[in-house]
Design brief:
The protein is an alpha+beta fold and 164 residues long. It has a single domain, classed as Aminopeptidase (3-Layer(aba) Sandwich), CATH 3.40.630. It is built from 5 helices and 5 strands. The chain has a 5-stranded mixed beta sheet, sandwiched between helices. The longest helix has 15 residues. The protein is globular, with a radius of gyration of 17 Å.
């Protein structure tokens, strides 16, 4: 059967969360997911929601997920599409699901006038890297991912009050 790609819609939250949890297991962080269906509802479909998702379905069953949002490139003066997560159920891998999701995101990026699409790949996920190379992506050399989270965000935010 053919895979179909569609934008996520209200009611998809349980399947989206299922795939997020499965991705966390795959990425060796099974206890890291704190997201809830209610959070997904707010962020995907709520007023001011800033996250989007596409689902891959086969025979009406969700088998893949692409979760993304827009960012901005000051150099190009145009938006970019940032792919936060790409997940395909293990039994559906190598069947064209990931390719179909990436095609849908490329179409979305073009429709929105995006200058580029970006994402991160775990350094041990060689299979994903080979897939991305096959579709024409390249590694961003020279850039390192950095992150500020949790208590560090709070300390930084409070530092303005203390310093002022």
């Amino acid at each position: 059967m053919t895979v179909a790609i569609r934008a996520a819609q209200p009611g998809d939250e349980p399947e989206i969360l299922r795939m997020i949890r499965a991705l966390a297991d795959f990425e060796r962080e099974p206890d890291a997911v704190v997201a809830t269906e209610a959070m997904l509802t707010d962020n995907l479909f709520g007023e001011g929601g800033h996250v989007r998702a596409h689902l891959a379905t086969r025979d009406g069953r969700a088998v893949g997920l692409a979760l993304w949002f827009l960012n901005y490139s000051t150099w190009t003066g145009r938006p970019g599409l940032y792919l936060e997560d790409l997940f395909v159920d293990p039994g559906e891998r190598r069947s064209g699901v990931a390719q179909a999701l990436m095609v849908a995101l490329a179409e979305e990026a073009m429709a929105r006038g995006c200058a580029r699409m970006d994402w991160a790949v775990l350094d041990w996920n060689e299979e994903a890297m080979r897939f991305y190379e096959r579709i024409g992506a390249r590694r961003s050399e020279g850039w390192q991912p950095w992150r500020l989270e949790g208590e560090a965000i709070a300390r930084l935010a409070l530092s303005a009050t203390v310093a002022g």
